[in-house]
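lol forgot to send this yesterday, sorry. struct tokens for the thing we talked abt
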């Protein structure tokens, strides 16, 4: 199947819209948490359970989504995920009490687990030389979604309230689902691999449990899974609690918080794309390149976050904002490179499954992060709780990434060898038919 350059970028644009609006919807909860606490009269521990509930549900659904994506049409399943996003968000907006809200908000985790198929499909549109920067572009949607959620709250919350904002974002989810259903095509798995991209016909390979079990033998994959368990703790803590931290602990007004967070998010966006681009360039020099960039990002963001959180409470908002922005520059270095590395070392028919396992492990670890910080906050204060959880988990994440950097060359070499075998198989198939 020949795909034009223009259509490739149309697909990227659709997926950018899907992820941007979905991330904004997902991150809105942190911006309106104070309103929700007042409306339902709940404390920090109960508020933390809201974020944890959605993460637990997402963790449960990641393996299922991964299996379905590797077995069936990924584009249609992504359209279904977008529709589920719209419906579950609308249900949470209509919840009459905290118990119902907790349950319906947790159900939004079903569609939160839908990204592995998106990355798998994009990997069949773009080859290894450019895959990291495209993944980095998609990763921009997390920080930009945070900015969009801030704008929605600042502009619409005083006018229509948090419930109607969720109804709006849920409705957009249904619209995007229709665009994906009718506008995005699937491709043969492995289409963009260098060994296969110029072949007129590719031998079909479908999900196989035996192939899936070989993922456990990938030398770099297990430490990458382990780093994922700890690596998303800080990001989930920051997106869920940081708005509250700036207002409560730092005493910043809402008008002050917005430019601080907007500046941090903009530099995070630059870091996400730059990290993916740098990973692509270094990967062409060494198979360790992507994970070297990831490790650098984790170590830098750890040290800078500690310094930022330890700044005196009476420091000016401008000075605090500069340090937070510098920290944010490195936060997303890891994301696009870890996702691209998984594509580099796994067979096309199990890539969604591999990425689903990665995200499953991440969510199992991260599911407790909002609740953990909320519980610690009642004992040692919100500032100390955020500092403790982020510093410890980032340090562990860096150690596992260093192990993955050492192990990854063998996995990349094995993958390229398997792709050469498949290229020969496809050429023989085309010759037989000819």
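and heres what i got for the seq, position by position
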């Amino acid at each position: 199947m020949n795909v034009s350059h223009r259509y490739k970028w149309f697909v990227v644009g659709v997926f950018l819209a899907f992820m941007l609006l979905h991330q904004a919807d997902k991150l809105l909860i942190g911006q309106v948490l104070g309103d929700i606490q007042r409306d339902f009269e709940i404390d920090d521990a109960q508020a933390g359970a809201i974020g944890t509930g959605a993460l637990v549900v997402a963790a449960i659904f990641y393996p299922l989504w991964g299996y379905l994506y590797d077995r069936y049409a990924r584009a249609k399943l992504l359209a279904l995920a977008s529709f589920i996003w719209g419906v579950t968000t609308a249900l949470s907006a209509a919840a009459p009490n905290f118990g119902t809200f907790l349950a319906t908000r947790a159900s939004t985790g079903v569609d939160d687990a839908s990204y592995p198929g998106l990355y798998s499909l994009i990997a069949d549109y773009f080859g290894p030389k450019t895959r990291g920067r495209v993944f980095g572009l998609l990763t921009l949607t997390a920080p930009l979604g945070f900015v969009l959620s801030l704008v929605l709250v600042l502009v619409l919350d005083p006018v229509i309230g948090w419930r109607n904002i969720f109804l709006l974002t849920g409705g957009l989810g249904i619209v995007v689902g229709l665009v994906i259903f009718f506008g995005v095509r699937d491709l043969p798995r492995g289409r963009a691999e260098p060994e296969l991209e110029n072949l007129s016909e590719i031998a079909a390979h479908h999900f196989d449990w035996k192939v899936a079990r070989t993922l456990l033998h990938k030398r770099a994959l297990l430490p990458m899974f382990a780093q994922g368990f700890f690596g998303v703790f800080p990001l989930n803590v920051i997106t869920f609690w940081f708005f509250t931290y700036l207002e409560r602990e730092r005493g910043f007004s809402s008008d002050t918080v917005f430019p601080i967070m907007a500046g941090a998010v903009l530099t995070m966006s630059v870091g996400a794309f730059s990290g993916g681009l740098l990973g692509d360039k270094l990967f062409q020099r060494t198979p360790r390149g992507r994970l070297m960039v990831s490790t650098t990002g984790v170590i830098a963001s750890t040290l800078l976050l500690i310094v930022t959180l330890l700044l005196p409470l009476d420091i000016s908002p401008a000075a605090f904002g500069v340090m937070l922005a510098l920290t944010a520059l490195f936060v997303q270095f890891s994301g696009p490179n870890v996702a691209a590395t998984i594509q580099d070392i796994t067979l096309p028919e199990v890539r969604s499954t591999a990425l689903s396992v990665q995200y499953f492990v991440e969510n199992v670890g991260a599911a407790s992060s909002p609740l953990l910080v909320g519980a610690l906050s009642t004992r040692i204060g919100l500032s100390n709780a955020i500092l403790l959880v982020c510093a410890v988990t980032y340090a562990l994440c860096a150690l596992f990434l260093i192990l993955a950097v050492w192990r990854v060359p063998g996995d990349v070499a094995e993958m390229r060898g398997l792709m050469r075998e498949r290229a020969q198989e496809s050429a023989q198939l085309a010759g037989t038919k000819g």
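The mean pLDDT is 86. anyway ping me if u want another try
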